[in-house]
Amino acid sequence: MPFYTYLKLRESDKPEHKAWKRRTASRLVDLRAALNNHIYGNGRRNVSVHDRNDARWLRIATWNIREFDTLKYGGRLTESLYYIAEIISHFDLVALQEVREDLGRLNAVIRILGKHDWSYIATDVTEGRPGNRERMVFVYNNHKVRFTNIAGEITLAEREKITSPYHNGLHDPSGLRLELPPETGLSLPQEIKTRKSGDKVKLSEDLFIDLPERTKMMLPSGSRLLLKKGMEVMRDDNGVRVLPDDLSAPFFCKDATLLFSDDLVEANALQFARTPFLVTFQSGWLKFILCTVHIYYGSGSEGLARRNQEIRRLTKFLAERAKNENDSDAENFFFVLGDFNIVGKDHSTWESLHSNGFFVPPELQEIPEGSNVKRDKAYDQIAYWKRSAGMQKEGVRIDVGNAGIFDFFKYVFRAGDNDPDKEDERCYAGKVSETKLPYPTWRTYQMSDHLPMWLELRIDFSDDYLGGIAEAE
Q: Counting runs of H as helices and runs of E as strands, what totals does the chain give?
């Protein structure tokens, strides 16, 4: 359990200091009761799974902990760190996303948890604008979870890299000059989505049009012809001749490549915007690999296409790793968890997560609300790779217990739902006014705009093992 000694009231405390200590302690009492009820009591979705026998179960969680901890909006209050530590303490292993470069506040949370009882493993920051200088972090209870010495960031092979939907496109700033074959035209969709922009009408989404065969294009300036090494050539009295005499005639050459200048072709092949972090752990009988992610969000159809690509490339990479029985990881079960930016359970992003044999357990699928504060998006998920019948392990298996999404804003930084005077907003008025943010937004920079998602995994298979021996012939 966390250490609360700093909250002890002292004679030397100023009145405002005593006030925040009392408020923090009061909120912690509410938060602890709510978490216990959520996990064990009436808030449990599956009470019959086990009777508070935590030794048989491992609770893992994923939490995008918004921009932890930048000073953009004043940074976290000390009381926020206590609330965050309290939430983490009710799980055994938590994957955190959006931890930033400065680890000072994370170390403060670990001190509250107890640095002899809790540890963390973090990546370096991911460079580049999409990476946002974020770290991936696992925080875990040393008494329940053991790090088994393998950790690494996932990089894709050249042929598997992420590409934009237009990676094979050619864009000429001076305008593409196309010549259609005689007596042909362009076949346009019946419905084209548009929007008004001043006195102009513009497309409101990308439009793809199939070009007729034998369409000709005037090549932009800067284009070059590459004749590859090893190509067979003709030799005459004047030396080597590789081009035909009549250059006005069509020129065909299977060993040639047409090159365009770099500013004309969308030829980007990318790694993940934020590098996934893969770590091996063991708890009880269960050996497992957790890969935590914060998938690219982007905007428009291009951003969505890249988002789906990242999810599918990730599940493919891990599935191939899991199938390799000669790999040192063959004894592990594979999980992915984190912020996948999944729009909803009827969306293509949800289908992408379920590609390549990965599966979100029913205990999470059946939760109707989302994991964002508004509860309308399925951004965060936990999924595992389902082994085929021929690859099942003897004795140990994936056995999911209870699961849930915990809404902490009912207990801390409340919106004043049960207080007509909106006590919380009054308490934090000075801090909020400094940031020029509305209170509902400001509080997400104290806690997060995501809610922690969690599930239980069985880690004790002693009865199965001993039963098998007892029943053997």
A: 10, 24
Q: Which two tokens stand for residue 164?
A: 């934009």
- Percent over 90 (pLDDT), the chain: 50
Region of 293 (left: φ > 0; alpha: ψ -120 to 50; beta: rest) is: beta
Query: How far apart are the C-alpha atoms of 381 and 377, rounded to whole Å?
Result: 11
Among 25-39, 123-137, 413-427, whose mean pLDDT is lowest?
413-427
What is the four-CA torsion angle of 91, 96, 102, 103, rounded to 10 degrees? Answer: 30
**Contact present, 378 and 348 (Cβ < 8 Å):** no
In contact, 136 and 105? CB cutoff 8 Å: no
**CA-based R_g, the chain, Å:** 29
Sign of the dihedral defined by the CA atoms of residues 100, 105, 110, 115, in that order: positive
Query: Three-state SS for 196?
Result: strand
Closest CA to 105 of 123, 87, 81: 81
Work out the pLDDT band at 421, boundaries 50, 70, 90. Answer: low
The dihedrals phi and psi of 74, each to the nearest 5 degrees, come to 90, -5
| Predicted structure pTM score | 0.80
Alpha carbons 114 and 119: distance in angstroms, whole number:
9
Residue whose pair of structure tokens reads 């006005």 in the numeric block:
248
Residues of 225-234 as b/e, b for ≥16 C-beta within 10 angstroms? Answer: eeeeeeeeee
Can you give the length of the chain in residues? 473
What are the backbone dihedrals phi and psi of residue 120, each rounded to the nearest 5 degrees, phi first? -145, 155
Same domain, 344 and 459: yes
| Structural domains of the chain, count | 2
Residue 423 lies in a domain: no
Does residue 437 lie in a domain region?
A: no
Report pLDDT digits (tens) over 355-382: 999 999 999 999 999 999 999 999 999 9
pLDDT of 59 > 50? The answer is yes
Residues 180 and 200 occupy one common structural domain = yes
